[in-house]
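User: tokens in, sequence out, please.
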């Protein structure tokens, strides 16, 4: 199997005023040459901070990203932001299909796929999120749910260079609860198989991130699980020390 360079991506959600830009400088200070060689880092601040964050990250190797985008490149969609606008503001990636978007804004797999296609069209790396609810896990349908989400949310043109999958069990997000490493291994193994079936060799090297209550204290064990190629981090990405502590979990 080919070596896959891990990605640790931070999702600030609806947190961060201009003063939070200092955290990007602090992450940059801890992201030295050796580390850059071993791991990719991304930070997705709220849309209001994408432009200044990208400026703050210049030369650091840290990719700045959006947390959502519209499927269209422009038009009458008040309040929405196009992937092209994120790219223009200096973003290199965008999260699509986060469970909070799926739940709060009723985003279906089809909508998520259209957003992921928009990201690829604009030249952004798409971080496509999937994951089951607690009720679905308890019913034993986790793999069915994740399989359906993957089938419906990923563009046919997905490649390892343009798409990253984030497996985020909804019940593990912001709760301090995480699945066992065995459970993570089972789902990530299933995602890898699914990607290989659909995308062949590209599917074998697409990055699959784990997300849900990743912290410095549990990062090492989660990042060591087979087919876990990095993490999508919410709460613990807000402070540079925590975020770098998670990166250190790669060993
Ligand atoms: C997320 O929102 O993508 C996430 C994983 O959040 P947290 O790390 O806070 O659980």
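Assistant: Sequence out:
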């Amino acid at each position: 199997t080919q070596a896959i360079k891990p990605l640790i991506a931070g999702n600030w959600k609806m947190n961060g005023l201009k003063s939070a830009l200092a955290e990007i400088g602090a992450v940059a200070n801890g992201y030295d040459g050796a580390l850059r060689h071993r791991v990719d880092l991304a930070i997705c601040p709220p849309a209001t901070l994408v432009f200044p964050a990208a400026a703050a990250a210049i030369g650091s190797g840290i990719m700045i990203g959006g947390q959502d985008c519209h499927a269209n490149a422009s038009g009458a969609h008040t309040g929405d932001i196009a992937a092209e606008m994120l790219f223009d503001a200096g973003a290199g990636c965008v999260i699509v299909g986060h469970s909070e978007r799926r739940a709060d804004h009723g985003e279906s797999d089809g909508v998520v796929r259209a957003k992921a296609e928009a990201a690829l069209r604009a030249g952004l790396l798409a971080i496509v999120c999937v994951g089951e609810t607690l009720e679905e896990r308890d019913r034993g349908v986790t793999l069915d749910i994740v399989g359906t989400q993957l089938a419906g949310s990923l563009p046919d043109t997905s490649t390892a260079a343009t798409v990253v999958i984030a497996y985020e069990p909804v019940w593990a997000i912001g709760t301090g609860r995480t699945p066992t490493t065995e459970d993570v291994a089972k789902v990530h193994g299933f995602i890898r198989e699914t990607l290989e079936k659909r995308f062949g060799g590209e599917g074998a090297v697409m990055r699959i991130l784990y997300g849900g209550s990743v912290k410095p204290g549990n990062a090492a064990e989660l990042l060591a699980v087979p087919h876990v190629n990095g993490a999508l981090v919410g709460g613990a990405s807000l402070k540079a020390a925590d975020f770098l502590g998670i990166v250190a979990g790669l060993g």
